[in-house]
Amino acid sequence: MAKWESTLEMLVNAALVNPDPHFWRGRRVALTGHTGFKGSWMAILLAHLGAQVHGYALAPTTTPDLFTSAKVAELIDSEIGDVRDVAALNAWLKRVQPEIVFHFAAQALVRQSYVDPVETMTSNFVGTLNLLEAARTQTSIKSMVIVTTDKVYKNNETGHSYRESDHLGGHDPYSASKAASEILVGSYRQCFLQHIGVATARAGNVIGGGDWSADRLIPDAVRAWKSNQTLDIRRPDAVRPWQHVLEPLCAYLILAQRMCGQTELGQAYNFGPDAADAVSVREVIEHAQKAFGYGATDFAELIEGPHEANLLHLNTALAQTQLGIRPRWQLAQAINKSMQWYKAYLDGADALALCEADIESYLATA
Ligand SMILES: NC(=O)c1ccc[n+]([C@@H]2O[C@H](COP(=O)([O-])OP(=O)(O)OC[C@H]3O[C@@H](n4cnc5c(N)ncnc54)[C@H](O)[C@@H]3O)[C@@H](O)[C@H]2O)c1
User: Fold this and answer.
1) Is residue 140 part of a domain?
2) Which is the closest atom of ligand 1 to the Cα of 85?
3) Based on the structure, what is the number of domains in the chain?
């Protein structure tokens, strides 16, 4: 290949992988779940791109939480509401008149889904149903990205890399609620929303600064290490695809943007890291501990607690070929960025400035 051809190819690839700032500037966007970890990062990213962002979610439940510490409510139009409340959700969508909808709102924790399966099913499945119903009569909408998870597959834990065409399943109530949402979205896409782009996004475990959820690996580690307690790891050998939170968020933006011109791109997509970055919990923690600088960890010998998948690999060829989406930060860099964020925050740095710096660094990596 001539040098100018490879340069041209690189430029084309770069244009494919970054969200288009011209597209997002001034764009009316509805984002559910904007008070959560991914939602707060998404609100900051969209505001960074100049979009008009309107969020709808329950109030944050952790202390601290990224939504509050990064003052997200000052960046966007934020409404506190429940996706199970049909009247309030409809009124919000009518008021906002969005062109793009991102649906993040969900009870997002596997363990909590064992504690309260009804809350999980109603928030995740019925909440998605309510949003799709509201979208039927909302003529402003051009594309919708419904966030599910990589846990939607019937996981036999054989090491197989799941493709979008593989069987759906769901052992625990969280996974089942998301797999059911996949089928629901497929039905609405075919029966009622053919005129717009409607996609589901199946991403793996994400890490990044500012997640303070219970029962998640990096937040648990930071909580333990900063207070000089030993981190107890209950499934050290569980293998999952890990990525920095900005990877799937940029993928969702590119997907929503592309579906505006090509509704036929509306389908299910896996988003995840390169195969080498599907690693064990033990490897993630060992790297995180080095990056954090200190902290003791106790790796359990026996697996305790309710069933959770121990082995999960995702095949991301479809997102790469259809959308040009490739992972940008390898796992080591994603862990370093995350732990630097937490260390700086704990030393008194401003949460929003830390997110902005990561966003600029990420977009400049393309
Ligand atoms: N964090 C991950 O590793 C990961 C991996 C795969 C998929 N996901 C999915 O990404 C999305 C965001 O996850 P997250 O990590 O930010 O979770 P999170 O728990 O931090 O945030 C969840 C958000 O949903 C909102 N919410 C929950 N129930 C609601 C209800 N009934 N009505 C309105 N809002 C409600 C919460 O208020 C919050 O804003 C979820 O759909 C989750 O299933 C997350």
Assistant:
1) yes
2) 32
3) 1
Dig out the tokens for 92 from the structure. 């919000």
Model confidence pLDDT, tens digit, residues 73-103: 999 999 999 999 999 999 999 999 999 999 9
Helix (H) or strand (E) holding 98: none
What domain range is 32 assigned to? 3-206+241-277+310-330
Pairing of strands 239-244, 278-280: antiparallel
Taking the model in full, what pTM does it have? 0.95
- Ligand 1 midpoint to CA 124 (Å): 9
Q: What is the CATH number of the domain that holds 183?
A: 3.40.50.720
**35 C-alpha to ligand 1 centroid (Å):** 9
In the reported structure, the alpha carbon of residue 107 is separated from the centroid of ligand 1 by a whole-number distance in angstroms of: 6
Alpha-carbon distance 352 to 146, whole Å?
A: 26
The band of 309, judged by pLDDT with boundaries at 50, 70 and 90, is: low
Residues with CB under 6 A from ligand 1: 33, 35-39, 57-58, 82-84, 104-108, 123, 127, 147, 149, 203, 205-206, 213
Q: To 5 degrees, how large is the angle CA 102–CA 42–CA 235?
A: 95
- Give domain status of residue 348, yes or no: no
Evaluate whether residue 20 is within a structural domain.
yes
Q: What is the pLDDT of residues 232-265, one digit of tens each?
A: 998 899 888 899 999 999 999 999 999 998 999 9
Q: Is 303 a domain residue?
A: no
